[in-house]
Amino acid sequence: MTKKLTVLISGLALAFAQQVWSALPTNAIAPGFATQAAKGGKSFGFNLRAALADGPVVLYFYPKAFTQGCTLEARAFAEAIGEFEAAGARVLGMSADDIDTLKRFSTEECASKFAVGVASPAIIEAYDVALKREGMPGGLSNRTSYVISQSGKITLVHSDMDYRDHVRLTLAEVKRLKSSK
To answer: What is the distance between the alpha carbons of residues 116 and 98, in angstroms, rounded to a whole number?
Structure first.
């Protein structure tokens, strides 16, 4: 193999490795947390354990509010919120943005239909969703969606920077949970 080809293959392997990330596995117990959240431009305290008392939670992490993929994903969740609610599920988007940014995002992109919360470094670490890509600032989360059953068990994990399947897959899982009761 030529030296150029070896360098190219090594570079591609490195680039691919930098795009791969971890997530908590299905059947794991979701780490509990409390954080600031916003819905309809108003902030409030969100506690995962308290939310689970009412039914399953779709917890989706996204890198940064008001970026193209994150905006499209938020709009897709907003469009489907009636189906999530009919299945008894609550949706919470999570990013490392500050609460003032999330207040705006909750109205402008989430259409005041679901809450978005502050993903602190501790929450990002607990859910194993740190975005580790060369050239990206630290502290961001990757795009990972979890469905957490009322018992606190993770029943679905979907990690993909392409936002398009997150709503479809999480909605299918909460409908499955409802039908299995």
So the answer is: 11
Concatenating the DSSP letter of every residue in 96-126 gives S--HHHHHHHHHHTSTTSSEEEE--HHHHHH
pLDDT of residue 17: 35
Average pLDDT of the residues of the chain = 88
Q: Which stretches within 20-145 are classed as H helix?
A: 48-52, 68-86, 99-108, 121-126
How far apart, in Å, are the Cα atoms of 88 and each of 24, 32, 117, 133, 179?
Answer: 23, 20, 20, 36, 11
**Is residue 2 very low, low, confident or very high in pLDDT (cuts 50, 70, 90)?**
very low
For each of the domains in the chain, give its residue range(s) and CATH number, in order of start: 3-179 (3.40.30.10)
How many other CB atoms are found less than 10 A from the CB of residue 166? Answer: 22
- pTM of the complete model beyond 0.90: no
> How far is it, in rounded angstroms, from Cα 82 to Cα 179?
17
- Count Cβ atoms below 10 Å from residue 30 Cβ, excluding itself: 22
